[in-house]
Structure formats: C-alpha cells, structure tokens
C-alpha cells in the first residue's frame, strides 16, 4: 500500500464530507449544544416536576397540640436541673443531695413531657422531612368531614383521617389508627402519600420515645442492639452526590459508545452508497489507487468522523458536568478519567467504522445502506445496556465481549487511581476489537474487488423462482452464501433446541447436539444443493504424509496450549471459578477423577471422537469449502476459524478455539481433505480430557509427569517445532486451490 495515495483519498473524502452542512451539524454543532441545553432543561423540569402536595386532614383537632412541655420543644431536662438545684448542693458537703436532686428533677421532667405535635401553625415542621426544603412542597388543608369531593375535584391530593379518640388512646398506651384516602391511579396522590409516610414514620418514632420516657424508661429501651453503618451515617446530601456520581460513571461510557456508532453510520453510507448514487464511484475506481488503498482511505475518513463525534460529545459532557459540579463530589471526572475515555473511544470508533464501511459497501443506495446499518444498533444496544445493570462489573468473562468490555473498562478507569489501573484487562478488551476491525476491513476490501457488488442493479425478490433455481441449477461445490447460512442455521438449532435436550444426561444431550445440530445441516445441504457433495465436504482420502503431519502437530501443540492455559489461569484467579460455574462437564470429569464413576470412555468417545468428526464436517468441510469459492485461501481460513470460535458460545474458549481453527484449516486446505484435521482435532480433545481425568497429584519434591511435560525446557522447543511445521504447511495453502466448477 502507498500511504500517499491513502492520505490523498482520505483528504478528498474529508473535504467532501465537511462541505455537507448536515454532517457538520451532526458531528460538531449538535454535541456541543446538546448537553448544556439538556442539563439546563433537566434542572428546570426537575424544578417544575416537584409539584407541591396538598394533604387534607379530617379531625385535625384530635391531634396533639404544641405545648411548653411538648417533646422536642420544651427546655431539656439538664436546663431544669440547673434551674432547680440550689448552688449549695455543689459544695463539698452537698454532693449526695445534688445527685439525688438532679435525679428527682430529671424524672419529674420526664413525666411532664407531652407528645410532640404533627402540625405547628397549620404546617408540618421541617424536622420531620429528610431534607428541610421538602417542607415547602407539602401544604395542609383542614377538612370538615370525610367527603371525597375535594379529593375527586383535585383540591387535595390525599385525605388523612384522625379518629376522635386519637389523643386518649395515646395516653392509655393504645394503638390508634390513621386512615388514608387516595385517588385511584393518580401520580399526584401517590407522591403525596410517599411524602406523608416519611413524615409519619419520624413522628411515630418520637411518639414512642415519649411513651417510654413517661414510664421512666430510656428512649432507646425497645432498641435491642445498634448497627454501625458508615454509609447510613453520611449526610443525605453526600449520599445523593454519590448516587449521581455512580450514574455518571455508567452513563458516560454508554453515550460514548452510542455516539461512536452514530458518528460512523452517516459517513459510511455517504462514502459508499452515496457515491454509487452520485456516479462518482467509477471515477475513483479507474484511478491509479488500488482497491485496498481506496478502502483504507475511506476507513480513515469514517474513523475520523466517528472519533470526532465521540470526543466532542465527551468534551461537551465534561463541560456540562463541570458547570454543575457544585452538585457533585470533588473528585468526579478527574482529568485522568477523561484521558482514559479518550484512549478507549479511539479503538471503539475504529471497530464501528470498519463494520459500517464493510456493510455500507454492499448497499446500492443511501436508503438501502440505512436499512443495512440499522441492525448494528440492535446488536449494540443489548451489549451496552448490559453495563447499566446493577452488579455487572469488569471480569474475565465480560472483558472479551465486544463493546461491553470497553464500556466496563471505562467505568473501572473512571473510578480508580493510577496505581490501581487494571492493566491486565487491556489485552482481553482491546485484542478482540483489533481482530474484528481487521476482519471487517478485509471484508470491505473483498467487497470493493467484486464488480457485482459495486455495480449491481435493483433486485426483485421472488422466493419461488429463487428456490427453483437453487435446486435445478446446482453448483458443484457450496457457495459462500450457503456456508454462512449453514453456520447461522447451526447456531439457531443449538439455541432453539438446546433447552429440549438439556434434561437428558450430559453425554446423551451432547451426542444429540453434535449429530442433529452440527452434522445434519451441512450433510443435507451438501446432498441437496451441490452436485459433488463428497468434495463439498472435503472427504477425499489424504496422502500419508498429511496424516503423519497431523499426528506430529497434535503432539507438538499440546504442551504450548496447556502451558498457555495455566498462565491465563494464574493471571486471572477468578477465571477457574467462573469456568467451574459455567461448564457442567468439569464437575462430571472431577467426579470421574475422584473415582466416583467409571464411564471415562464415554467422554473420550463423545467429546473427543464425535466432536472432532462432526465439527470438522461442518467447519473445515462444508463451510470452509464454501468460503473458498469467494475468498482467497487465507481469508477463508481466518473467517472459518472465527466462525468456529463463535460457535462455542464461550468467551473463555474463543481465543484457543480460533487458534486451533486456523491450524485445522491450514491442514485441511493443504491436504484437500478433512481427515487429517479430524485426526488432529481428535488427538487434541483426547489429550485435554485425558489430562482432566488424571488423579490430582500430591505435593511432593519429586516432579510429576505433567509438570515435566509443561516445563519450559519442553514447551519452548515444542512451540518452535510446531511453528516451523505450520510455516511449512502454510506455504502450500495458496497453491492448493479449489476449483469453483468441476
């Protein structure tokens, strides 16, 4: 590739996009204005939404009244003690009389304390509310009777009925009942009840304290123990600020992800489908630039717009938050937090830009491009909404999930100091993004190399005609479209019918899944849709040297893979626990290893032999053969390996499955048969299950056989030998071509 050509194309596309006023408004103007206006509007709406509640009280005269001896409003007992006790009691000879006098006066003051009032001058005291300003939002109206007319006419939002015997029941240690009357299905009535319940709870607590004091008991007599909770001891304002901080930490990554996607959608549609509509695509294609350079130039343009949209939104959100910083804690959105968001927004924008470019290249018009790209929102929404759920935090499982891992890493980095940065999570979070971006770019390059994609005419879908052509005009080998459909059908069958077979024993259910859901679709599609099903499934007899290479490769890759697994488990201690929770087979293998079962041969038969046969027929047989009809050998190998990793539906197995899929695909392409890869797959699975079935070694000074196998002096030579053998096998990949027609 020539960087000067890529830079020229990128500059041209940027200049054309910046001439569009709609693009400037969406990328620059809207993010800058959105959050300040939205923040001010929310504060205004919040003020208007705090509608005062009107509470009508029937029997207001039966409530306790304010007196000089009312609890909380009378002079404290200590004041009475100082006012009554004579000064001579403090002398050297009056210590005993002073203590007796103080106790007598204290008990006398307790017996004369009256119940606190609920209303003072027709209003509820502010001390009964969590925040004093809430007292301004509650107004009291006296009602003569229990008529519902004021309630139905919305003159009051709630009616509180006080019985005539309320005060007498309190004096007799009774339990009087207050009644509430609502408007059905009315938010104002519910809000008034919510405010009144908080007031009544505090008033009830004070009434109970007075009742105990009247009997000479301490006010906390019925409180049998205390709980020291620093969180509950914090002021209400501080708790509100912490809740707002938690909301911002979750909201910022969510908005960054969505704006990164939105910033890539419109430029991708305009640079691909828009150029087809304007007729400028032909001019670009006949230029000296190669298709790969054109794709990279367009990709950089889309990436710049996506990143600019995300970063401008981040700047606007940061400025708005800083403007309202008086409502937050002092350490909200530190410069380090903003820096981490910027660094992680760039690779995320690259992922969305590559995917949007690949999908937009297939669109024939801007309208069609919008239809194709809209499902990206449907795929992204659940991944990002997952980060808003309570209890979801960064761990080895979520770190490998696209979009989710980036957002969770942003949340973690926004709340920790520099010395607590989880550096180990950067690799599992960013590595999948880099891989998916590269695959999307490769797909876009393949799209630009196909004339039928760039200049295809309008299509009319006729299901009947398409089915007749599909079965009458069969190809010799499966097509790429049939390969992708086969993979999607396998996933659908596993997802839809897995719950039906999960009640059976694990070995039986796994056998059904492999035979019915993995092997059956490619077999039937090869028989019905191709004229050479035997070759479509790559079931030719291989050469002996290819079989020998498969066996040798199986022996060479086992120690490096096992050592790599142990390294990952040591770096992520929680990973083993998560694996135990998510893999029921591990528990059964543990029971076999401990001697509680003798069915080890069933696991070798099902998980080693049957799994190898069925998965190779599907992925290295039908799917890989179909992909090679459209893509070159290496692209088909990587795509089939990615599909093989996705098929396992387990992020813990994604990377090992992808690497194993590449090795198996290289062997299948080189030998033109899936039998060597089937042998390698079987030996690998059997070795893994065999290691799991080994009895747990006791700790001793003598090294075990497994420790000897995984020793660095063994794994390093084996790794180098395996890489050398793969290089030799990989040289014949491009030479081993599959003819599209026989």
Report on the structure:
The chain is mainly alpha-helical and 742 residues long. It is built from 30 helices and four strands. The chain has helices at residues 3-18, 21-49, 77-84, 95-111, 149-152, 166-171, 187-214, 230-233, 236-278, 281-285, 291-323, 335-362, 366-385, 396-399, 404-413, 426-448, 451-454, 463-472, 480-501, 506-529, 533-536, 544-571, 573-582, 584-593, 600-627, 633-647, 651-671, 675-693, 705-709, 712-731, and strands spanning 53-58, 138-143, 158-161, 179-181. It has a four-stranded mixed beta sheet with strand order 2-1-3-4.
* Strand elements, count: 4
Strand order within the widest sheet?
2-1-3-4
Biggest sheet overview? 4 strands, mixed
* CA-based shape: elongated
Kindly estimate the percentage of residues that lie in beta strands according to DSSP: under 5%
The first-to-last residue Cα distance is 35 Å
Secondary-structure-based class equals mainly alpha
Low-confidence stretches: 76-98, 104-109, 696-709, 738-742
Helicity level, as a percent range? 55-70%
Mean pLDDT: 75
Give me the number of helical elements. Answer: 30
Number of domain units = 3
- Radius of gyration from the CA trace? 37 Å
Compile the SSE list and pairings:
Elements lengths: L2 H16 L2 H29 L3 E6 L18 H8 L10 H17 L26 E6 L5 H4 L5 E4 L4 H6 L7 E3 L5 H28 L15 H4 L2 H43 L2 H5 L5 H33 L11 H28 L3 H20 L10 H4 L4 H10 L12 H23 L2 H4 L8 H10 L7 H22 L4 H24 L3 H4 L7 H28 L1 H10 L1 H10 L6 H28 L5 H15 L3 H21 L3 H19 L11 H5 L2 H20 L11
Parallel strand pairs: 1-2, 1-3
Antiparallel strand pairs: 3-4
